[in-house]
């Protein structure tokens, strides 16, 4: 199969009316709705680094889209269009069929159009550039956290990092726990509906990709504030608690990455509305800390003792 057979036989599909020019020209043209700002982000996945070299094509497709959609969720944006740049060692029809099957299934689930990209030969690598819409002037930035804000997190945190240790053979989990953790690692669910609900409610937000402690640190730095984080309140799959010592569980939760849950701050006054936003979007929400004066992140256990992490998160060059 040639590059152009791949592009025209696998990638060209029906798209929404807001795509004025899709795949096939030198560039794509889209028309945003009146009253919206455009929001852009890009995330790259490399074989052997972000996924195992022998990972299933369906899982890779899921993840490369999910991590990008998650960045839109973290802004409160609605994802609309993507460009996919990919390097393949070879164009294997069977592999690409599976990859594109999941990719287009997920794109249609989120009502996103694939409008362009690039295809080259090389080590298996994917980059998606995603474009979303935000009601004009609204966004969930990292810089808005205020003194006294509650710190909230969606879903359960730490399972993806536990799964990674499972894959690396460091821990063996009971089958049911392993399946749940694997699912979370391979197929994260971006919190788009929640993000949208949080517009005008949350002061600051970001998604957890590199570790809760490190990612909360980004909000603190951008906002010029400190925080208390209550480690024992961070939710996790209950059955996972019995599978490892508490220090290990905390490391998965606080320094592990790949959760793609939303971490956000909001004033106490809107607690009831936040919980309603969780219900409206079908997302479990937990209050796990408080924004305080200063610039530091203090991590406390339920007894009030301070926890010092070995590392706060993942850094490619760290
Ligand atoms: P150019 O030479 O201008 O870079 P290409 O020949 O690489 O154009 O691509 C032809 C068309 O196919 C363009 O519209 C481009 O956006 C699209 N395209 C190429 N690769 C991909 C891909 N992996 N996903 C989506 N669209 C792609
Ligand atoms: Mg090109």
Automatic annotation (TrEMBL):
CDD domains: ThiL. ATP binds at residues 117-118, 142, 209. Its EC number is 2.7.4.16. Residues 24-133 form the PurM-like N-terminal domain. Substrate binds at residues 50, 258, 314. Keywords: ATP-binding, Kinase, Magnesium, Metal-binding, Nucleotide-binding, Thiamine biosynthesis, Transferase. Mg(2+) 3 binds at residues 26, 71, 207. Pfam families: AIRS (PF00586), AIRS_C (PF02769). Mg(2+) 2 binds at residues 43, 71. InterPro entries: PurM-like_C_dom, PurM-like_C_sf, PurM-like_N, PurM-like_N_sf, ThiL-like. Mg(2+) 1 binds at residues 42-43, 118. Residues 199-299 form the PurM-like C-terminal domain. Mg(2+) 5 binds at residue 210. Pathway: Cofactor biosynthesis; thiamine diphosphate biosynthesis; thiamine diphosphate from thiamine phosphate: step 1/1. One of its GO terms (molecular function) is ATP binding. Mg(2+) 4 binds at residues 26, 41, 71. One of its GO terms (biological process) is thiamine biosynthetic process. It catalyses: thiamine phosphate + ATP = thiamine diphosphate + ADP. It comes from the Bacteria. HAMAP family: TMP_kinase. Belongs to the thiamine-monophosphate kinase family. Reaction mechanism of ThiL seems to utilize a direct, inline transfer of the gamma-phosphate of ATP to TMP rather than a phosphorylated enzyme intermediate. Catalyzes the ATP-dependent phosphorylation of thiamine-monophosphate (TMP) to form thiamine-pyrophosphate (TPP), the active form of vitamin B1. This is Thiamine-monophosphate kinase.
